[in-house]
Write a structure and sequence with these properties.
Low-confidence stretches: 1-9
Shape: globular
Strand content: under 5%
Number of helices: 12
Number of domains: 1
Distance between the termini: 16 Å
Number of strands: 0
Mean pLDDT: 80
Helix content: over 70%
Length: 293
């Protein structure tokens, strides 16, 4: 009987799973902090500072790693991908500012479906039945959560644009991650993350200046944490996507919901509903199925 083309239990793949889960955890904490500061600062300013601080942090990593100067192709491809990163960040941060943390993450969980589909279309990656089942379970969990919130009226009125922004961010995030998978085998991870921070910071600099609200000392410390967590999370994700297929790692994105529920409750007092918990059970179950042997 022929061996499967790819197993997450292989010596090479298991570190990818661990790195992806750890990266998602760091980015989930970053999202919670962003939700707090977005209530006091414009979204464009928050996005700019996030990438500007990230650029400073990754500069220190570059000084240690010394990956060499990027090629012209690396600059062009990753520079173009940075535009997607800007769109993803601004739409997602806006959604965070208008919706509860868990619901924002739930809507963004369309991204793993798009990652798997785009990975098959662009990278010619194979999607087996286990991955399809995991994605279906995660998608069903997301629908359970959204239907509960829609029934409760929390996705109407002022929150509706936030919900649309969350879904839009899922599409651009998925495309960005598939393109990352395409480049991760060719470019050093630190170079990718450096461009992923530096180029968006340059794009957002002038718009942020127009809406600038001077941060307090406390918010400055929070922005430093946001940039550091963002770099750490994306370094781990870039390493993971350089080792494993996009469709295999996509369901692990759903583990962010666990962090969203915990952080939403402990930091913002957002009590998860029964539908949120039921959806979370489906989502985490799907991620576990995709990760096992």
């Amino acid at each position: 009987m022929p061996a499967p083309a790819f197993r997450l239990a292989s010596p090479r793949a298991m570190p990818a799973v661990a790195e992806a889960v750890a990266g998602i955890a760091l980015l989930s904490v970053m999202d919670a902090i962003i939700k707090g500061v977005a209530a006091r600062h414009p979204v464009i300013e928050v996005a700019f500072i996030r990438f500007a601080v990230g650029s400073i942090v990754i500069a220190g990593v570059l000084a240690i790693a010394r990956p060499g100067w990027p090629s012209r192709e690396t600059l062009l491809v990753n520079g173009g991908r940075a535009v997607l990163v800007v769109i993803t960040a601004t739409t997602f941060f806006y959604a965070l500012s208008t919706l509860p943390l868990a619901e924002t993450l739930a809507l963004s969980f369309l991204a793993p479906v798009f990652i798997a589909v785009l990975g098959a279309l662009i990278l010619r990656e194979r999607i087996d039945r286990r991955v399809v089942g995991a994605l279906a379970a995660g998608f069903a969990g997301m629908l359970v959560i959204v239907s509960g919130k829609a029934g409760g009226g929390s996705l109407t009125g002022a929150a509706l644009p936030g919900a649309v922004a969350a879904v839009a961010s899922a599409v651009t995030y998925a495309l960005s991650m598939v393109l990352l998978r395409a480049r991760a085998a060719k470019d050093p991870v630190v170079t990718i993350v450096a461009l992923q921070n530096g180029v968006p910071a340059a794009i957002l600099a002038i718009p942020a200046w127009w809406v600038w609200v001077p941060p307090t000392g406390r918010d400055a410390a929070l922005f430093l944490a946001i940039g550091t967590l963002g770099v750490g999370g994306h370094l781990l994700l870039a390493r993971a996507f350089s080792k494993a297929e996009a469709a295999r790692l996509a369901p692990l994105e759903y583990t962010a919901l666990v962090w969203a529920v915990l952080l939403g409750f402990t930091v913002f007092g957002e009590v998860p509903t029964a539908t949120t918990l039921a959806g979370a059970a489906l989502i985490v179950g799907g991620a576990l199925v995709a990760s096992r042997r």
